[in-house]
Amino acid sequence: MSDPQDPATADADLLVVRPGKWTLVVIVQLREGTKRFNELRRNMGGVPQKSLSVTLRELERDGFVTRKAYATIPPRVEYDLTDLGRELLRLADDFKRFAQRNRHAVEQARRLFDAADSRASL
């Protein structure tokens, strides 16, 4: 059993939650409550069906969303945030505020890097 006070264990625990490209987008989409698969897909624009399926499965496995399937024709499947998912939503909101607050600084850093990089490759 791992010791949560051990710094090596704490660092390894950071790797347990490994958000994919669509993870935070799905979490934010579920902010307002239960959504069906196709509703999520429609709202998310360009997400490929397979990517959304994989993302939802990973989120369900990690305990961030619940999945409820109804025995209807056609089958109906709904997704909702768990308490853990709502906590991740707060983190996503914090990240968005960070990105908005620091957008210009990041753009400036990219311009400086790209300019230096283009000179170095001459």
From TrEMBL:
GO molecular function: DNA binding
Key word Metal-binding present: no
Protein name: Transcriptional regulator
Keyword set, alphabetical order: DNA-binding, Transcription, Transcription regulation
Keyword presence, Transcription regulation: yes
Domain HTH hxlR-type residues, every copy: 6-107
InterPro entries according to UniProt: HTH_HxlR, WH-like_DNA-bd_sf, WH_DNA-bd_sf
Any one Pfam family match given in the protein's UniProt record, by short name: HxlR
Source organism, top-level taxon: Bacteria
Gene3D superfamilies assigned to the protein according to its UniProt record, in alphabetical order: Winged helix-like DNA-binding domain superfamily/Winged helix DNA-binding domain
